[in-house]
Amino acid sequence: IMNEATYLACVNVAFEIPVHPGANPTHPASALGPQINKINRKFQNVLVEHNKHLLVHKAQILAAIPDRYLNILENDTWGYKDMTALDMLDHLVDKYGSVEPEDIDRKREKLSEA
User: Fold this and answer.
1) What is the pLDDT of residues 43-90, one digit of tens each?
2) What is the Cα–Cα distance from 82 to 75, expressed in whole angstroms?
3) How far apart are CA 11 and CA 7, in angstroms?
4) Against a cut of 0.85, is the pTM above it?
């Protein structure tokens, strides 16, 4: 896990935490049925995309991090269903600290020597 400046230097794109679109869409006071339906559909599409992003981020973390580092967060019945990617990242930083690119390079060199 790296800080924002390091991440930006690596990928040249700032990471933005997905923001929930809200509980319900807002409709103009004068909106009629077709307009309300259109607004609702657009809102639903935005909500589905938001949820997809959250699931993808969580799946990437679960694929990249060995289970022993996250299994304390896992529920016996529901697995990681109630955990967000941000919860997982916070746990990793709090429990294990952060990893800098130099740390990764040193580990790669050490592994290639073996």
Assistant:
1) 999 999 999 988 998 999 999 999 999 999 999 999 999 999 889 989
2) 8
3) 6
4) no
